[in-house]
Amino acid sequence: MHEVRWSSYLALGDSFTEGLWDVLDDDGSPSVELAAWAAVNSQTPQAHSFHLRGWADLLAGHLAQARGAQGDGGLRYANLAVRGWQLGQIIDEQVPQALAMKPDLVSLVGGGNDILRPAVDIDTVADRLEEAVATLRGAGIDVLLATGIDAKGSTLISTTRSKVGIFNSHIWSMARRHGAMVLDVWGMRSLRDSRMWSSDRIHLLADGHRRVAQAALVALGLEPEDHAWDDVETPLTPLGTRQRLTADAEWLREHAGPWAARRLRRAVPHDLRRAKQPDWLELDAR
């Protein structure tokens, strides 16, 4: 394992990197109740006012602590992620900001919102991502990419599994070509547990984000703080056919249907279109 050589970390991406639905109470502890409500009301303006943490915030905290233990001080951290953005938006708007801010380390994670669209061209999306990786690496910035999540076992989301698999292959190849690092979300067995996910089946809850942050440390060549980060929880009792069909119908009614309707109308509230943390934060080593 290596020492933390980065003094600044900038996170780029969409809702995954913004931290939906790792919702914190006022005391800074994860709030299961707020997360459950927010997952159902995720497109309301009020939802954006919640304090969202997520794996990138957790990773930044771990890096700051490690730097302190090395005697190197804290870490500068910013997060430009915006929920709902496709990869083209991330590259067009966030990557230029990253180049201007000149971080030591960038996490660039996107493409999930593209893959959810039936007409997506995976090769074109991957080509755009590789151009961005090459640009960042050419500027001397270390880059952390991430594979897409394996939706095996999810009755409906698993229809995107083959597309995600092709996209992941592109990610591993471009990482090798350009010297980037890869957070292997696809390989995380623990994320196949439905208890890691909000009711929308797309966004992680607090424990899922915590595990991804540990996986990110491993991807960076660092020691995880929790060596059981990918251990599988006690298995759930499988749902019966009737229960599964009822749950799927509820998900279609409460989440998938409204999501598709919003995309057809291009109706995403304007006040959700803002970066999570656009300015540098100075994180100390505590």
UniProtKB/TrEMBL annotation:
InterPro entries: GDSL_Rv0518-like, SGNH_hydro, SGNH_hydro_sf
Domain SGNH hydrolase-type esterase: from-to ranges: 11-211
Name of the molecule in the record: Lysophospholipase L1-like esterase
Protein origin, superkingdom: Bacteria
PANTHER family, sorted: GDSL-LIKE LIPASE/ACYLHYDROLASE, PUTATIVE (AFU_ORTHOLOGUE AFUA_2G00820)-RELATED (PTHR43784), GDSL-LIKE LIPASE_ACYLHYDROLASE, PUTATIVE (AFU_ORTHOLOGUE AFUA_2G00820)-RELATED (PTHR43784:SF2)
Stored Gene3D superfamilies: SGNH hydrolase
